[in-house]
Amino acid sequence: MDNEQKLKIEEKIIEMLKTVYDPEIPVNVYDLGLIYKIDLQDDGELVIDMTLTAPNCPAADFIMEDIRQRVESVDGVKSAQVNLVFEPEWDKDMMTEEAKLELGFL
After folding, report:
1. Residues with Cβ < 8 Å from 53, sequence gap 6 or more?
2. Is the pLDDT of residue 22 over 90?
3. Where would I find the MIP18 family-like domain in this sequence (predicted)?
């Protein structure tokens, strides 16, 4: 795939990530700043590094599987691997302005 195709697919991946929510927080995982890396290979293999707002999040497995299933539905994504990482540690400064506003941090 060429760079233009790759950018369009990555935009669709981000749109799809914005449909995934932590059940305890009314903001999507992308705007919360939980997505650290989106790495789409030319062959359609996708690797996402993400974190959680807290390491002991009870919904971790649900969120990760929801992300994997949704991004694999994007045309151009052959398969997705979602890695859970805790470096760097998440903090509220990683959220978008919209997320901060929604959660009352502004």
Report:
1. 22, 25, 32, 34, 90
2. no
3. 10-82
